Amino acid sequence: MKQFLKFTLATIVGVILASLLGMLIFFGVVGAIAGSSEKVTEIKPNSVYQLDLRGSLVDRSEDDSFSAALAEVFGQPAQQVLGLDDILANIEKAKNDPNIAGIYLKGGELMGGFASMKEIRDALIDFKKGGKFIVAYADNYLQKDYFLASVADKVLLNPEGMLELKGLSAEVLFLKNTLDKLGIQMQVVKVGTYKSAVEPYINTKMSDANREQVTAYAKSLWSNMLHQISFSRKVPVDSLNAYADEMMMFQPTAKSVKYHLVDSLVYVDQVDSILKSYAKDYKIVKHADLLNAPDNKKYEKNKLAVIYAVGGIDDGDGEGIVSETLVENIDKAAKDESVKAVVLRVSSPGGSAYGSEQIWRALSNLKAKKPLIVSMGDYAASGGYYISCIADKIVAQPNTITGSIGIFGLIPNIEGLNNKLGFTYDGVKTNKLSDLPSINRAFRPEESELMQAYVNRGYELFVKRCADGRKKSIDEIKAIAEGRVWTGEAALKLGLVDKLGGINEAIKLAAEKGRIKEYQIKEFPEKEDFMTKLMKSFGGDVKTSLVKAQLGEHYELFRQMKRVEKLNGIQARLPYELIIK
């Protein structure tokens, strides 16, 4: 008994000591992270801003040091996430700071959308107007990163590296054969010939209408990219297409120089001498350090609000747009007397039709009080367009994906699966349709008519919102609706958007509409600092952080599966998770 008590006491003491040690290490890491984020960077003369093009590009940055620390614990590499807002802010700082001589774009494996990449590229072109230089180097260039880097004065590639230039392809996964084998029938109610979100569940290949729209906007995206590379590199578009047909990434790297796609083949250690030819005795300023450099902007009483609407609408995973939360932030901006104009930054493939309507309502109330401009990101389609159409003006990039004015509902019938597994169901009901909707049987004719009428009403409301917002007739909107997806370039010609450009153009337009010359940007929702995010992690977000840490780059696939599971109500959503590569 004495030995048992001795062993138990020793175990308890050991657990307590281990816990205390773990807490000390944990809070030491927290203190180091929090302390490092408060350091102010002093920019010295002859500095070069180094932007590492790797990881994932998102519309808005967030401090996710906790997830990065967890990734290390699980032996996963920390996934670098860069915010478009931070990159644009740093390029603007570098442009205006006389101590910064140029920009060094290092690497070419940043994963981002077409429109976001163009916003960065446009900012770099503006940066060069001040007479400053840009040098780009990569071991390997992904296609969209080469598009971005082609604006540089010198484009450098590792002698054993790869430059991806091959054109675009779009691929869809079809599940009908798999569902048939399982005995599951997907019952579809939709409006829109081109509304193709349901196709993967009921077809084995693209419909003619869907193939038409995907071909059209893929060609538009590719043409836009080629024309800009052509202008920067002085290489004809026809030649670029010919080089793409050769599949440049598998060609000898010497061809990249011969074809004037890059200027030199060098190893990373040789970049130093090239940078010195532009700025002798230069000092590198990393991205995170430049963020902590003062921008010397003085306080302004007038505010211009930028409200972020990023992700799927009411997807249920807590990572996209939660309509209730977004409505609260819209109302805050509407009531804030210091806010004289508003930019709504929309980067969303859509989602819940109900949630979209609630956001539309809040925006209509805001618009009655102050100017509202929409800036479209990579996507502003379906529900994303629903919440955009109310704006005074809409600004989109030529390669933004927008439109998709149409809705659908999708309800599975697992009667065949039940038969295979031997499941039977029995029950009672008080009224004729008390058991509607049921996934255990097919729709009866009257139920199909009821569901279709419900979806039709949703579509008619969507079309009316667009017609009223764009000052067009119902018939004019229907002629370009039917769920069809358009690029920003095509949408401008159709009157779905008003101007081509990025968020900075939208901000300038909002300032003009609000009649303010000097102002400060006020973001909604406010960014959470590290400590706030850490406390929220203990309150519920920790599960997401743990899953992210364990799955790493595969987390996005997991998130999409969870989102499908939680789809509720009729949807105003992009056709599907179309992968363009």
Structure description:
This protein is an alpha/beta fold. The protein folds into two domains: 47-166 and 247-291, 2-enoyl-CoA Hydratase, Chain A, domain 1 (Alpha-Beta Complex); 303-554, 2-enoyl-CoA Hydratase, Chain A, domain 1. Helix content is 46%, strand content 21%. The protein has 22 helices and 21 strands. The strands form five sheets. Strands 10, 11, 13, 14, 15, 17, 18 and 19 form an eight-stranded mixed beta sheet that branches. Strands 1, 2, 3, 4, 5, 8 and 9 form a seven-stranded parallel beta sheet that branches. Strand 1, helix 2 (65-73) and strand 2 form a beta-alpha-beta unit. Helix 3 (84-96) packs parallel to helix 4, helix 4 (114-128) packs parallel to helix 5 and helix 13 (323-335) runs parallel beside helix 14. It starts with a helix and ends with a strand.
Helix share, percent = 40-55%
Integer average pLDDT: 87
What CATH calls the topology of the largest domain is 2-enoyl-CoA Hydratase, Chain A, domain 1
What would you say the CATH architecture of the largest domain is?
Alpha-Beta Complex
Any idea what the shape is? globular
- The CATH superfamily of the largest domain appears as 2-enoyl-CoA Hydratase, Chain A, domain 1
For the record, give the distance between the C-alpha atoms at the N and C termini, rounded to a whole number: 69 Å
